[in-house]
Amino acid sequence: MQSDTQAPRVGVIMGSTSDWPVMEHAVAMLERLGVSCESRVVSAHRTPDLLFDYAKGAAERGLSVIIAGAGGAAHLPGMVASQTALPVLGVPVESRALNGLDSLLSIVQMPGGIAVGTLAIGKAGATNAGLMAAQIVGLQDATVRAAVEAFRAEQTRSVLDHPDPRPD
Ligand code: RP5
Fold this sequence. Notes:
The protein has 168 residues and is of the alpha/beta class. It has helices at residues 20-32, 48-58, 76-81, 101-108, 123-138, 142-161, and strands at residues 10-14, 37-41, 65-71, 88-93, 117-118. The protein has one domain: 3-Layer(aba) Sandwich (Rossmann fold). The protein is built from 6 helices and 5 strands, in the order βαβαβαβαβαα. Strand 3 (65-71), helix 3 and strand 4 form a beta-alpha-beta unit. The longest helix has 20 residues, at 142-161. The termini are far apart. The model has no long low-confidence stretch (mean pLDDT 96). The structure holds 5-O-phosphono-beta-D-ribofuranose.
């Protein structure tokens, strides 16, 4: 699924439809920052041939970054990284059995030589994966860079405008 009519620059993939409630936060951040993206289910274990095709074809299709989220035995980010030279950002999704610690360790402990940039478990990780992907795209795109800077400035202003921690 593609977020707008522009060719996608970031691919957001996940191991299962059950990962969407977390991974939608990566898509939301990309959309907020004006970065075109696509999202789809690609499973390391259930659709390994699709994983290889997706990763091998990603650069040729014009993607600049791949965000891969998975839970449990979360092999998707590492296997995608093994098949493309594009930067891969891994998002550990909270698992039902181990609360995402299994996902985190599966993603973060890559062997030297194949890199995955691992984010935090869950919503914060997905949000920051979207932000970091935009920052990478922004290296070559001044409009996206300006959107990231505006987002950061607005966030700072919002905190400074509400110094009282007590609820209204
Ligand atoms: C992983 O297994 C997925 O990334 C998901 O987080 C987890 C459970 O998948 P479902 O059984 O909910 O489809 O591959």
